[in-house]
Amino acid sequence: QVQLVESGGGLVQPGGSLRLSCAASGRTFSDVNMGWYRQAPGKGREFVAIIGNLGTTLYSDSAKGRFTISRDNATNTLYLQMNSLKPEDTALYYCSVLPYWGQGTQVTVST
């Protein structure tokens, strides 16, 4: 059974940084795409970033230049380094290996 468990969220001031992690288990992940999505209060879930099995990355316009997605295939772990955080980045952040989803980790950017 595939399990995805996110961690690393929290409260941070504008301009700050956070590193999210997603521990994956239940199958081999080195051959599939892994991604991050987020859902802000009152809004739909939106794409943030994705990384392919060979390391190719794709970012949303809002994440480009501030966020970095990476993966460690040896430990089945997905990361999202978030820098220069803004209040509009406040959301529940989900790890995904489609069709599977984690439970999310809350990121709040506020003074």
How would you describe this structure to a colleague?
With 111 residues, this protein is mainly beta. The protein has no helices and eleven strands. Strand 9 (91-97) and strand 10 (100-101) form a beta hairpin. The termini are far apart. The model has no long low-confidence stretch (mean pLDDT 96).
Quick summary of this structure?
This protein has no helices and 11 strands. It has 111 residues and is an all-beta fold. It is globular and about 40 Å long.
Alpha-beta content class: mainly beta
Q: What is the CA-atom radius of gyration, in angstroms?
A: 13 Å
Number of helices: 0
N-to-C SSE series?
Answer: EEEEEEEEEEE
Number of strands: 11
Structural descriptors:
four-stranded antiparallel sheet; single chain; 11 strands; 111 residues; mainly beta; globular; seven-stranded mixed sheet
Blueprint (SSEs and pairs):
Layout: E1 3-7, E2 10-12, E3 18-25, E4 34-39, E5 45-51, E6 57-59, E7 67-72, E8 77-82, E9 91-97, E10 100-101, E11 105-109
Parallel strand pairs: 2-11
Antiparallel strand pairs: 1-3, 3-8, 4-5, 4-9, 5-6, 7-8, 9-10, 9-11
